[in-house]
Amino acid sequence: MLDRRKLLVAGSGAGIATLLYGCGSSSDAQEQTPAASGADTSETTGEVALYDGSPIEPIDGQAINNPDGLQDRPLGGVNANVTVIEYVSPTCPHCANFHVTVYPRLKEEYVDTGNVRWIVRPFRRNVLDLAVFMVAEAAGSAYHDVLSAYMASQNQWMTADNPRQAIFEIAQQFGFTQERFEEVLTDEEMFAALESMREQALNQFGLLGTPTFYINGQRLESNATFEALSSEIEARL
After folding, report:
1. Cβ atoms within 10 A of the Cβ of 34, count?
2. First to last CA, the chain
3. Are 78 and 51 in contact (CB under 8 A)?
4. CA–CA separation, 72 vs 50, rounded Å?
5. Which of 8, 114, 174, 196 could form a Cys-Cys staple with 48, CB 3.0–4.6 A?
6. What is the pLDDT of residues 183-224, one digit of tens each?
């Protein structure tokens, strides 16, 4: 987990122009159709209503459930009694390790069954995080699939000679054209929204590093293991 000082240093001085030009150059690519956002916020599997990855209104008035900037895109049960909010950074190795080794089991046992409402919230530490989050948000209801793809391939695109081009090549798998990719990376409104979300996490919720988890509003103080998260979830079901 990264400490607050490193988070602040990593977050200083980044701007939208840096995002567009600071990660390397890119070449033209084959035209494809971008992924479209889902119109509905949920789908029914059996008798359990599940979110479909579309943005939602805050579930209640609690501060932690009212993010600045962007709306949450949960997975899991629409009527779940347990809400897990995960602040994540795509360039954080601990986040990638969690999503590859721990989250799939949690998703199978608690999210896909509708027992938990799982929210993955952006926390950018650098311009590469910004690029990934902007692509994910622009992908609409494919948001979680996009983030998963970047987490699973973190070692490849982060260490590439041209990481910006490597990020684009993954975006292509979700229908992004070169033109759409450039448009997304220069979206001032989205940039400002991600910055607002970051500042709220630091200043209002006391974020100390990534990944950080809040379970029904309480920050998980132990390591992000399956056992620790499962125990906290079970205690609230």
Report:
1. 20
2. 28
3. yes
4. 14
5. 114
6. 999 999 999 999 999 999 999 999 988 999 999 999 998 889
Q: What whole-number distance in Å separates Cα of residue 48 and Cα of residue 112?
A: 9
Handedness of CA 61, 64, 65, 68 (dihedral sign): positive
Q: Specify the residue for token string 């989205």.
A: 190
Provide, rounded to the nearest whole percent, the portion of the chain with pLDDT above 90: 78
**What are the angstrom distances between the C-alpha of 168 and each of 5, 90, 121, 124, 128?**
30, 14, 21, 18, 11
Enumerate helices (H) and strands (E) in the chain, giving the number of each: 11, 7
134: its two tokens: 């902007």
* Beta bridge partner(s), residue 117: 76, 83
Whether cis (ω within 30° of 0) applies to the bond prior to 90 is no
Digit-coded pLDDT (tens) for 94-144? 999 999 999 999 999 999 999 999 999 999 999 999 999 999 999 999 999
Return the structure tokens found at 229. Answer: 């998260």
Compute CA 169 distance to the chain's CA centroid, rounded to the nearest angstrom. 19
Instruction: List pLDDT tens digits, range 115-129.
Output: 999 999 999 999 999
To which residue do tokens 């990855």 refer? 53
- 185 three-class SS: helix
Please give the Cα distance from 165 to 23 (Å, whole number).
Answer: 8
Does this model's pTM top 0.85? My answer is no
Q: How far apart are CA 206 and CA 204, in angstroms?
A: 6
Cβ-based burial of 8 (10 A; exposed 0-12, middle 13-18, buried ≥19): exposed
